[in-house]
Sequence to fold (198 residues):
Amino acid sequence: MNPEWIARLVARWVRFYTRDLPEPTARRRIEEVDADVRDQIAHERDDGVGDRRIALHVASRMVRGLAADASWRRRAIARSATKEAVKMGTTARSAIRVALVTTAVLLAPLVAMRFTDEVNWTPFDFAFAFVLLAGAGSLLELALKKPGRPVYRVSATALGVVAIVLGEADDAPGLVLFGLLLIGGTVALTIKRVRRSA
Fold:
């Protein structure tokens, strides 16, 4: 019996019980067990142990570790499910934040229309403001989640510039203020990113 043949058998077993796990987790486990088996074989050879006996030791260790391997797999699946749930929860929280802020901002002109004739928004105005606010909020959330990707910050800045230009053309100071706030928020995110990387 050859120790290298048993080592290949162990490697196949590890690849089998790490199947369907996230690739980094599976690779880390495969490399860890492979290194451990190689170290065991090298150590026993240095001590003068024969190949047949080394192969038996490695095979015995594999059989004794079957229950531990199954337990490790269950824990790894639970951890990856938890990470996925956290990721989904973070996305849901971002969407809720954007929806709440958008709704709160849009309630201001809706309530104002009940008390004064100076505020007169059409359904198109509300739809346009909703798209603008929700889009800007989503861009800022993405910029926060993925600080290494400048495309979201650039897009938010461009949206702010468009809002300022449209606000100036339509004499809409609220739109200009929105654009300035959006650009200011994007600049703040950029400064935060630069400070973290420094």
User: Anything to note?
Assistant: DSSP finds seven helices and no strands in the chain. The first helix runs from residue 3 to 17. Helices lie at 3-17, 23-46, 51-64, 66-115, 123-145, 150-170, 173-197.
